[in-house]
């Protein structure tokens, strides 16, 4: 349908005549006395009873883009051209599928209701690709039906079933209301409303209404001893673990009764993990124009003055761009950070139960958004009560497979809503950031014993304290400059001189050569095979980490990092146990911690800062007993 006049000069005669024609059509197709405002400002998400208000808005901001079929003003959406449907933005798609906005008359909708309207539009836009299948189309039809259904017969304020349910759920999330309390509230309100109302009665019913088109989740059965996942052709149909022989399902008394060879009740798996694929999640991010632009912030808007304020200012980011030029030239390609930790899902401060989560953030985003909940993925949840420990690689397998797919040269086909084009998205895992125990679990390097330092490795200076029954780490003089005065003060260090140079940095290729031939059978059962100990001491490596399967992993300078919060906290705990007139040294150490925690760091100061902290550690050797120097103190150099 030719309606080019809608986007002509607003002072032209054809536009003026066209607006008058549009208003006559809209008046003839009023819904309960209201007209949706199709302007750039309102985007069919506000309604007014007076056409003169819409007349004013049209001459003020014009029609919303691609609104050639007036679906919110009496025309049928099926008449739209196919290319128009493909190029719709979020609000356009919302009105195409029947989103009519709110029913508030001439008054503007308030902030909370506006959030609901925006969420509905985004929900329907996100569902666009999911609705291509017959099953997805049926779910979308149900959602549209709920959106058109009045909350109760004769509702004069225009409240709809879907809109109201979404408002209730937003209120629940905002105020941290428990599921039980929320269910009780729904029952109370449902009893107050007139007979025949459509308000859901339980939390479960509410989620069914608003989440029929949610992101995909894979529920994967696991061996209770963490040996394998029951997936793929090799393990999918097994009834017991081939490594430890543990049964896949829990045994119950009523499982013994069968009818025609079938179990009478659904069997319960012994252990489960949930995997939320990251590729569909990325697709949804790129369907939003604002998110789309933010994904290129590091290349288009980042301040580049030589200071360190974003991972893109660091050497690792730049080395990746130089090493993999095809990857670096497209700013939309993603760099992920990964973290993992355990939690007690019952809200208890105890280690009696540990459910493990794996989260990922996107480093392409600006610092103010990178750690916002909206942009953090949680691809893996591992059921407790025991932590996976060294066997976490078993559960990381689905995620690593997706990361391999995203690294391939052809990448994954995505739609860029901002540039209105398809492109091949690629991504890599930039770094993992964890506390010290989780770093050891992911990297495969031992976090205790004589070679616990991830940097020094074989050159770690360590001594076992017999009476404290712990290993301590000293010998910080070797990290100082060769002409530093402390080298001449051997009498202060048990009359020992130390002419060694600092340990050399091990590249990714060097580390990979150390671990590539390690063979480990994962699991905690009788069939597992851990790395054997060396001379009665813990081996430096516990496994060949699954991350080495990523083609780029050996080219990263920093693969695993410790978060600053845990580093400073653990040192503080150490200091409190040994305080004895060391104010100047501790003050200097605090200044170092403050400097590296700033939002902007001058790279030219980094060497001086490292020298400062080394001098602090050397002074600590003169002040504190050897038991002070545990592995967390050692990492501060």
UniProtKB/TrEMBL annotation:
InterPro entries: Transpos_assoc, Transposase_21. Pfam families: Transpos_assoc, Transposase_21. It comes from the Eukaryota. Residues 3-75 form the Transposase-associated domain. This is Transposase. It comes from Oryza sativa (Rice).
């Amino acid at each position: 349908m030719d309606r080019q006049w809608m986007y002509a000069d607003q002072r032209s005669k054809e536009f003026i005549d066209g607006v008058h024609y549009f208003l006559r059509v809209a008046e003839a197709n009023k819904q309960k006395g209201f007209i949706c405002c199709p302007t750039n400002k309102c985007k069919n998400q506000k309604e007014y009873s007076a056409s003169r208000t819409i007349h004013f808005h049209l001459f003020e901001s014009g029609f919303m883009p691609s609104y050639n079929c007036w679906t919110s003003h009496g025309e049928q959406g099926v008449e739209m051209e196919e290319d128009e449907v493909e190029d719709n933005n979020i609000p356009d798609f919302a009105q195409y599928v029947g989103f009519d906005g709110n029913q508030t008359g001439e008054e503007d909708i308030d902030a909370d209701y506006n959030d609901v309207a925006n969420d509905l539009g985004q929900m329907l836009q996100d569902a666009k690709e999911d609705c291509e299948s017959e099953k997805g189309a049926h779910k979308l039809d149900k959602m549209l039906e709920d959106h058109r259904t009045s909350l109760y017969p004769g509702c004069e304020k225009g409240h709809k079933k879907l809109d109201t349910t979404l408002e209730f759920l937003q209120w629940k999330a905002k105020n941290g209301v428990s599921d039980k309390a929320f269910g009780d509230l729904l029952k109370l309100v449902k009893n107050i409303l007139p007979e025949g109302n459509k308000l859901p009665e339980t939390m479960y019913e509410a989620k069914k209404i608003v989440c029929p088109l949610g992101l995909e989740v894979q529920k994967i059965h696991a061996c209770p001893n963490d040996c394998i996942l029951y997936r793929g052709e090799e393990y999918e149909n097994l009834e017991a673990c081939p490594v430890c022989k543990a049964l896949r399902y829990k045994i119950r008394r009523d499982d013994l009764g069968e009818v025609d060879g079938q179990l009478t009740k659904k069997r319960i798996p012994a252990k489960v993990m949930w995997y939320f694929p990251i590729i569909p999640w990325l697709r949804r991010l790129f369907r939003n124009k604002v998110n789309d632009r933010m994904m290129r912030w590091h290349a288009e808007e980042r301040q580049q003055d030589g200071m360190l304020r974003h991972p893109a200012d660091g050497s690792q980011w730049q080395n990746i761009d130089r090493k993999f030029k095809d990857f670096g030239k497209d700013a939309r390609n993603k760099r992920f950070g990964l973290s993992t930790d355990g939690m007690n899902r019952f809200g208890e401060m105890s280690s009696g139960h540990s459910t493990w989560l794996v989260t990922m953030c996107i480093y392409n985003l600006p610092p103010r958004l990178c750690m916002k909940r909206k942009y953090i993925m949680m691809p893996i949840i591992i059921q407790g009560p025991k932590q996976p420990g060294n066997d976490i690689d078993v559960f990381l397998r689905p995620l690593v497979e997706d990361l391999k797919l995203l690294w391939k040269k052809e990448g994954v086909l995505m739609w860029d809503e901002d540039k209105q084009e398809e492109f091949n998205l690629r991504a890599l895992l930039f770094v993992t950031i964890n506390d010290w125990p989780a770093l050891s679990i992911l990297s495969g390097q031992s976090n205790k014993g004589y070679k616990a330092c991830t940097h020094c490795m074989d050159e770690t200076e360590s001594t076992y304290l017999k009476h404290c029954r712990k290993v301590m780490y000293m010998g910080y003089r070797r990290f100082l400059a060769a002409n530093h005065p402390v080298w001449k003060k051997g009498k202060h260090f048990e009359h020992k001189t130390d002419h060694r140079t600092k340990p050399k940095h091990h590249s990714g290729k060097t580390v990979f050569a150390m671990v590539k031939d390690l063979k480990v059978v994962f699991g905690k059962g009788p069939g597992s095979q851990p790395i054997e100990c060396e001379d009665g001491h813990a081996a430096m490596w516990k496994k060949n980490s699954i991350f080495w399967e990523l083609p780029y992993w050996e080219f990263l300078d920093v693969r695993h990092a410790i978060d600053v919060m845990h580093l400073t906290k653990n040192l503080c705990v150490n200091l409190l146990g040994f305080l004895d007139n060391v104010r100047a040294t501790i003050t200097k150490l605090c200044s170092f911690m403050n400097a590296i925690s700033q939002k902007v760091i001058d790279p030219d100061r980094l060497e001086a800062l490292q020298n400062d902290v080394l001098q602090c550690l050397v002074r600590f050797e003169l002040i504190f007993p050897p038991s002070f120097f545990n592995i967390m103190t050692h990492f501060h150099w």
